[in-house]
Amino acid sequence: MKHASGLLLLPLTFLISCKTLKTDNVNSLKSSDMGPALNESEKKNPGHCREWSEKVTNPMFDTYVKVLGNADHRLWHYLWHGVRNSWHELSADERKVFTDLSPDWAVPADRMLGDDVLAQNATPIDARSNGSGEDFLYMHHNMISVLRGVLADAGQPCIVSWPTIPDPRPTASETEQRLATIFPFPNPSTEGSKSDGGMEIMKSWENWMNVPENLKGIALGEMGYDLEFTIHNNMHMRWTEETTPVGDRPAIVGNEGFLKDNWKWNNPEYDLLGDTYSSHINRNFWKLHGLIDNYIYRWLAANDYSEIADDCAGRSKCYQWKGKWEGAMPHHHSFKSEQERYESLAESARLEEDQRFNEAQTIARSRLGSSDLTQSERETLEKAIQTDEKTYQQKRELAEQNRAKIAQKIKEDADHQMEREKQNAGTLGLTESQTAPSAKSSAALARFRRAVNLARFIHRASRMDQGEINANAIADFKNPQTRSEVATPSKYVRKYVKQAKKP
Fold first, then answer.
1. For all residues of the chain together, what is the average pLDDT?
2. Average pLDDT over residues 421-441
3. Distance between CA 261 and CA 330 in Å, rounded?
4. Which of 38, 168, 297, 303 has its CA 20 to 30 A from that of 316?
């Protein structure tokens, strides 16, 4: 996404009053007349959030910035987008610069981003169907989960996504106009993502994506690719500022300060939505990415799935993630959050099973006193009741054993993630807050500077301005003969999203 011009976010005093929704537990979402309506992302992936808010309050912002706004996380997000966009153009030596930092930076061979990019084996790759779109959904889906864990652990409300793209036009619904009043943009006459013509195109994409039949039968990655280069990129461009209170970020290369958390552009004030180094600090980032996350669940419903997981373990109607490339992500998953969520779900399931069993036993025992039963039938029924009780007790014991195994697996996964975070801290962030010895070595510092220098080139080469709707697209949209080429997301990305080229 390019550094867009002409946009200043509205001060917080203009934001809506904080609407919150409290939940009794992680498996119980209860609305109230005063609370915000929850969308698919909040309902299906609540984490252990107990309260929800439409407004990102200052305490909420301060809480997540402490975790997601440090130099490590900023650099990871910056590099993830940069490496992903131009990995196919890097030489073996250039790729080694990143894999020397962490093997996790190696982009899978079949994930190269760009239209009809040639892989090393000279096999044409269609970027829309190669899984990179699923990587995009997966990575940001996990970012949202991390955010919810961070906020919930701090006792803060979790952020409710945008239910629709905020639209200021008179033809828009009251909800869309209300959101557009809260999250405005300047220079409405400017052609591009910020213009009325650009909004018209964005709403056409949204309307197309909201039809279940249009999502049925396409791969999750195809939908992700279409979303990324249509609605997603242009929401970033529409709501990005022109600058921030700390000014424009200088090139990272050559600045010793970027390795420090107190570098001017590592401060919370640098939250430019149009820069991948800072976009995830911006409050609107979580609103618009929540909107994108909703489409995962709409795709699942359209394709007869009821859930999505890293490992479905054979569960029917469960879609198992295929695209899971995150680079060397500095994970911040909370073991406490995951453990509490699992324990709550397991306890709810146990109580439900107990209730069903007790109801069945009550009915069976009431039959024992019936005068309609013969002595033989009564004895048979008593034996069946005793057998059922014994069987259920065995089932409970087995369930408890499985519960303990799963709890242990959660702990092992948490330990593994902590170890990965320690490793990445020594090779990715190199911030003053890190203690890994390798982070202080001149060799490690030199490797990291080479990687950042290369990433700077990658960002220049990857044409991040493809998120800007241009005048030609707006003109084609207004022409009935070419309208479908713009209004249909998959057609638009093939016609207007160009393959990244080295300058």
1. 76
2. 42
3. 15
4. 38
Domain segments of the chain: what residues? 12-332+433-496, 336-429
Per cent of the chain over pLDDT 90 is 32
Task: List Cβ neighbours of 419 (8 Å cut-off, separation of 6 or more).
Answer: none
Are 240 and 7 contacting, i.e. CB atoms less than 8 angstroms apart? yes
Which pTM was predicted?
0.73
DSSP string, 3-55: ---S--PPPGGGSPP--EEE-SBTTB----TTSPPP-HHHHH--TT--EEESS
CB 324 within 8 A of CB 310: yes
Q: Where are the alpha helices (DSSP H) in 303-374?
A: 335-368
Residue of 7, 65, 497, 491 lying closest to 236 (CA atoms) = 7
Q: Which residues contact 461 (CB under 8 A, 6 or more apart)?
A: 86, 89, 500, 501, 502, 503
Whether 119 shows a pLDDT value over 50: the answer reads no
CA distance 288 to 290: 5
Structure tokens at 311: 């490992």
Query: How confident is the model at residue 125, as a pLDDT?
Result: 57
Within 10 Å of residue 412's Cβ, how many Cβ atoms? Answer: 10
The Cα 52–Cα 36 span in angstroms is 7
Place of tokens 């054993």: 401
φ/ψ of residue 303, rounded to 5: -110, 20
Per residue in 451-467, pLDDT (tens digit) is: 666 655 554 433 344 56
Q: What pLDDT score was predicted for residue 159?
A: 98
Contact 72, 429 (CB under 8 A): yes
3-state secondary structure of 308: strand
Torsion angles phi and psi, residue 319, rounded to 5: -95, 125
Q: How far is Cα 320 from Cα 313, in angstroms, rounded to an integer?
A: 9
Per-residue pLDDT, 199? 94
* Residues 6+ positions from 15 with CB-CB distance below 8 Å: 55, 182
pLDDT at residue number 451? 65
More confident site: 2 or 35 = 35
Closest by Cα among 118, 117, 202 to 166: 202
What distance in Å separates the CA atoms of residue 126 and residue 112, rounded to the nearest whole number? 9
pLDDT of residue 214: 98
- Which contiguous run of DSSP H or E holds residue 413? helix 375-424
Cα dihedral sign for 493, 494, 495, 501?
A: positive
